[in-house]
Amino acid sequence: MAFASFLFLVTSSDSTAQQCALNFLEESQYLAEGGTWSVTLGDLDGDGDFDSVTAHSFTDDVTVLLNNGDGTFTQGQKYGVGDDPRSVSLGDLDDDNDLDMVVANARSNTVSILYNLGNGTFAAMLSYPVGVFPESAVLGDFDSDGDIDIVVANGGSDNTSVLLNNGDGTFFIGLQSDLGNGPISVIAGDVNLDGYLDLIVANAVDNDVSVLMNNGTGETFSRQDYGTGDFPEFVVLGDLDDDGDLDIATANFQGGDVSVLLNSGLGAFEAEQRYVINGGQFSSVALGDLDGDGDLDLVAADEWYGLINILLNDGGGVFIDYQKASMTDRPYALALADLDSDSDLDIVVGSRSSNHVGVLLNSCTQTCSVDFTGDGSLDIFDVFAFLDAFNAMDPVADFTGDGVLDIFDVFGFLDAFNAGCP
User: Contact 197/8 with Cβ under 8 angstroms?
Assistant: First the structure.
């Protein structure tokens, strides 16, 4: 049973990872006609690298771009789906060890399922009816029977549709759950650590998220709402503060900001922390360890200003506006993966207003935390520079990352200094 990498759960990488300085190469563009509303990455042809699928609202189809292995892509192959596709998700629906495709079609009130033929090409779609104006779908084993189910957020009927897998990649329609007004994005993860996949839904009109706790059947959920910024357009889950549970982040379209809601344990969430960046229109957000320091950073698409915003995590779930990348076309959707197999995360961006997908390859340059003089070598002058920073109470000397400067930071520096730089 296989999943695409960014479907429902994002966790931080190894805390011993070497930090690096971000450096994105010039944007490459690939033809994907029809206005892109959704980008998803996964290994579609089984060759060990990440391919791209984009959903196109204006042409009622999806485009598959196969990776050549180096972060460049072949010419796209289009497949017809329903009317006004808004999201595309990947998962092994029929248990044949390849990734199939699920597309939410807003104006035909259906989801389209396209089965992978095993080589990154797909059979003609099959459709299932859902609620009114489905905006987003998420995949996961919601009833704990070992196969992949589908949950859809219906923006017109303000509810979810649950499609439970019969075990062979066909589905029966389960119960619906009520949501807030204007549900537009749904993600899944075990937020209360009970072994079942729960749902998080962004309700754009109500300016909140609904947390739906799974009772274990995959059909009935208990709901609690939490406030966000204005018009949350997209929601993601990940352990942002490295405490072992899943936190929430939303991209807020009308506020031009990102909301972070930290999990206080067992699926209860603290009040949002809001990060105002450009004041534009934030349409999508993704999580990943971009700088290799072992925690999850934020990447947000600003459709109004045409920017990709990178916010680096300080390790405790607090974010710093670090870097911006200008895109050729206004970005709407984005996804992260290591496209060129160089052990850092790259970015794929789709635009509603163009016929191209943009790719930003990350050439993350390794840095050495104990080279305080920045001259590329370790010597006594680095020790002096560390001690100066320590005595000045500079946070850069906090080697233990606990927010307090003490003797353990000195020990940490000396251990790292003696180990040398890679």
Answer: yes
Pick from 56, 63, 100: which is nearest to 78 by CA?
A: 63
> Which amino acid is residue 7, in one-letter code?
L
Q: What share of the chain is helix, strand, coil (3-state, %, to 5)?
A: 5, 45, 50
Average confidence (pLDDT) over 391-400: 87
Could you tell me which residue, 387 or 277, shows the higher pLDDT?
387
**Are the CB atoms for 183 and 155 separated by under 8 Å?**
yes
Residue 165, token pair as written in the block: 């897998």
At 7, is the secondary structure helix, strand, or coil?
coil
Nearest to 309 by CA among 293, 325, 295: 325
Mean pLDDT across 86-111: 98
Q: How many CB atoms lie within 10 A of CB 223?
A: 14
Query: Which 8-state DSSP code applies to residue 67?
Result: B
Which amino acid is present at 124? A
- Rounded to 10°, the helix 407-419/380-391 angle is 160
Q: What Å distances lie between residue 384 and 119, 387, 406, 407, CA to CA?
A: 58, 5, 17, 16
CA-CA distance, 149 to 114, in Å (whole number)?
14
Helix (H) or strand (E) holding 385: helix 380-391
Q: Which two tokens stand for residue 395?
A: 């946070």
User: From residue 278, how far is each of 240, 261, 325 by CA, in Å?
Assistant: 22, 20, 13
**Residue 145 — φ and ψ, nearest 5°?**
-110, 10
Buried b (16+ CB within 10 A) or exposed e, 243-272: eebbbbbbbbbebbbbbbbbbeeebebeeb
Contact 236, 285 (CB under 8 A): yes
Measured between alpha carbons, how far is 133 from 284 in angstroms, rounded to an integer?
19
Token duo for residue 273: 């922390």
251-268: per-residue pLDDT in tens?
999 988 999 999 998 899
Question: Burial, 195: exposed, middle or buried (Cβ in 10 Å; 0-12, 13-18, 19+)?
Answer: exposed
DSSP string, 197-220: -EEEEEETTTTEEEEEEE-SSSS-
Q: Which residue has the tokens 């509810």?
A: 159
In sequence order, the β-bridge partners of residue 346 are 337
pTM of the model: 0.85
73, 104, 251, 315 from 231: Cα distances, Å: 34, 20, 8, 28
Phi, psi (degrees; rounded to nearest 5) at 80:
-70, 140
